[in-house]
């Protein structure tokens, strides 16, 4: 939901959402990462590592 990113967007901080698997009920789960100013590249690296773990 884009609304969940609004606080980070208004603060000028990077944020991203990525799928993180499925719950016990079969519904998809998501994970939101937010970082400090200029942490975009670090966050993308974390997202890539997390995506590999939840394949």
**Order of SSEs:** HEEH
- The chain-level mean pLDDT equals 89
The rough form would be described as: flat
Q: What Rg, in angstroms, do the CA atoms define?
A: 12 Å
Number of strands: 2
Unreliable spans: none
Number of folding domains?
Answer: 1
Main sheet, how many strands, which sense, barrel? 2 strands, antiparallel
By secondary-structure content and strand pairing, the structural class works out as alpha+beta
Strand percentage lies at: 25-35%
User: Span from first to last CA?
Assistant: 22 Å
Q: How are the strands of the biggest sheet laid out side by side?
A: 1-2
User: Helical stretch count?
Assistant: 2
Helical coverage, percent range:
25-40%
Question: Can you describe this structure?
Answer:
The protein is of the alpha+beta class and 55 residues long. It has one domain. The protein contains two helices and two strands. A two-stranded antiparallel sheet has the order 1-2. Strand 1 and strand 2 form a beta hairpin. The mean pLDDT is 89.
What would the keywords be for this entry?
single chain, 55 residues, 2 helices, alpha+beta, two-stranded antiparallel sheet
Précis, in short:
The protein has 55 residues and is an alpha+beta fold. The chain is built from two helices and two strands. The model has no long low-confidence stretch (mean pLDDT 89).
